[in-house]
Design goal:
It is built from 13 helices and two strands, in the order H-E-E-H-H-H-H-H-H-H-H-H-H-H-H. It has 211 residues and is an all-alpha fold. The chain is elongated and about 55 Å long.
């Protein structure tokens, strides 16, 4: 089956099989499972040679946190077939886009919350310096400032520290997972407005179009 035929099959399946959380079943399956199902008839999120490893890992990790309505919205659904054929030639370029999205878009959404609970200065410094030390400082500050309720903010900051590390290591797939996990933690503070602001579908489109 050619890439074009695979994409057409995925698009056709999406008309009657919705996208859901978890790998799923033949009645509802995750974004990556849709691609595997079109290629092999198996509902699985296993690696696929014609799919970017960075995109696959990012999608698997982030889509389970996204609202089901967003996953089945026209923007995301229209892009899922195009994941097939992305290949693995531009993995580091995609990892860099994902990491920049974390710093430039995602983490900015938390600044007002950080300001409100007394660790806004540390958060701003982390966004400016983008170092492990700065991220570690905000992780500790958020724990102290907001006690147990700051757990999610601390988790986001620790993930940001890890993002610095994976950027040095140039591990595209790991970077994708780190960012997706950070985003999942960040979404906990205001899910509806958050997903609209960070717009995962827009990022997915950019990742697909890399060449």
């Amino acid at each position: 089956m050619s890439i074009q035929e695979t994409q057409a099959t995925i698009a056709d399946n999406l008309k009657y099989i919705p996208i859901g959380h978890g790998v799923g079943t033949t009645e509802k399956m995750c974004s990556i499972a849709h691609i595997n199902y079109a290629l092999s008839g198996r509902v699985a999120d296993a690696p696929i040679p014609c799919v970017s490893a960075a995109i696959r890992r990012w999608v698997i990790t982030i889509q389970d946190k996204m609202p089901v309505e967003t996953l089945n919205g026209p923007e995301w659904k229209s892009l899922v077939p195009l994941i097939a054929g992305t290949g693995q030639k531009y993995e580091q370029e995609r990892a860099n886009i994902i990491l920049n999205w974390l710093w430039d878009v995602v983490l900015l959404q938390i600044q007002p919350i950080a300001d409100k609970y007394g660790f806004g200065g540390e958060w701003q410094l982390m966004l400016t310096e983008r170092t492990e030390d700065a991220a570690s400082e905000v992780a500790w500050a958020s724990e102290v400032a907001w006690a147990s309720e700051a757990a999610w903010a601390s988790e986001v900051a620790w993930a940001a520290a890890l993002a610095v590390d994976v950027k040095r290591a140039e591990d595209a797939a790991r970077a994708a997972v780190v960012v997706a996990r950070a985003v999942a933690f960040a979404a906990d503070f205001n899910a509806t407005d958050f997903w609209q602001a960070v717009d995962p579908a827009r990022l997915l489109k950019r990742l697909i179009e890399v060449e």
